[in-house]
Design brief:
Elements (H helix, E strand, L loop, with lengths): L2 E3 L6 E3 L1 E4 L9 H14 L3 E3 L8 H10 L7 E6 L4 H15 L4 E7 L5 H9 L2 H10 L3 E8 L4 H8 L5 E5 L16 H7 L3 E5 L6 H9 L9 H10 L6 E4 L4 H12 L7 H4 L3
Parallel strand pairs: 3-4, 3-10, 4-5, 5-6, 6-7, 7-8, 8-9, 9-10
Antiparallel strand pairs: 1-2
């Protein structure tokens, strides 16, 4: 596993991270923990979750997995709430489920950040509450997740108050990072020295489905998932690409993509006009 620095946090994080969004109580808890232990052994150290993933089960699983190895891991979670009381309750709940004293990265769990949501965060106590919790020592760094570019996301980046952004970016969805003009919320965040974490790194299966639907015979034996993960890791602005690992096989192939640094694409040459 290769590592990158998570923006101005200075944290060294695995360039493939674990996204806990698909964990649910119907899954085998012990098997998930064993899979995460295999991922740790392979070098993965960045773990992303949220209170609503599996009704809190995702945080519980990650809490089980990091017992005895907390210092080796970087844990990021979120708050569904944007108001001071709700934020405080979310954080206390996450600390309990994770079984930790401090959360490394706390993020507003966002979508497109409407005007009302952005106002709640920046002008109506949300950010101040995050900062207070950080000053209390319960959180180390502040961030937010966003589905894509919006006026609200741009405003939040421009404040300079956030250390990390988690957003979409993949071969099919590049509006967060326009390689032709070097524009978008990812370059904006990079300019603020924010850490940049990706979700839907391999298009959540959409691109492989499209290619197999249109070019079924030609796609036989083509490792599209590895190709897609390598594409996002070829962007030097990306610090960690989250993957919803479900098996030891997933751990192995994603780690192999990370370690094949010589296979990175020259995106500048690809987008040269």
């Amino acid at each position: 596993m290769q590592y990158r620095t998570l923006g101005r946090t200075g944290l060294r994080v695995s360039e493939v991270g674990y996204g806990g969004g698909r964990v649910n109580p119907n899954q085998d808890r012990r098997a998930l923990v064993e899979m995460l232990h295999a991922a740790f052994a392979a070098g993965l150290n960045y773990l992303d979750t949220a209170p609503d993933y599996g009704g809190g089960f995702s945080e519980i699983v990650i809490g089980d997995a990091v017992k005895g190895r907390r210092e080796e891991c970087v844990i990021a979670t979120k708050t569904e709430a944007y108001d001071p009381e709700g934020i405080t309750a979310d954080v206390e709940g996450s600390l309990k489920r994770l079984g930790v004293d401090v959360i490394d990265v706390l993020q507003f769990h966002g979508g497109w950040f409407s005007e009302d949501e952005t106002h709640q965060v920046l002008d109506n106590g949300g950010l101040e509450t995050y900062q207070r919790i950080r000053d209390q020592g319960k959180v180390r760094f502040l961030g937010f997740s966003a589905d894509g570019p919006s006026a609200g996301v741009e405003r939040m980046i421009s404040t300079g108050e956030f250390d990390v952004i988690q957003t979409h970016y993949n071969l099919m969805y590049q509006s967060t990072c326009d390689a032709f003009g070097n524009r978008g919320v990812i370059p904006d965040a990079e300019a603020q020295r924010m850490g940049i974490v990706l979700m839907r790194s391999t298009t959540s299966g959409a691109f492989p489905k499209l290619m197999r639907h249109c070019f079924g015979e030609e796609m036989e034996g083509v490792d599209l998932d590895s190709f897609l993960l390598n594409f996002v890791l070829s962007n030097p602005m990306i610090d960690s690409a989250l993957m919803s690992l479900r098996s030891i096989e997933d751990v192995n192939w994603t780690n192999a993509v990370s370690d094949d640094a010589d296979g990175r694409l020259d995106l500048r040459e690809i987008y040269r006009r």
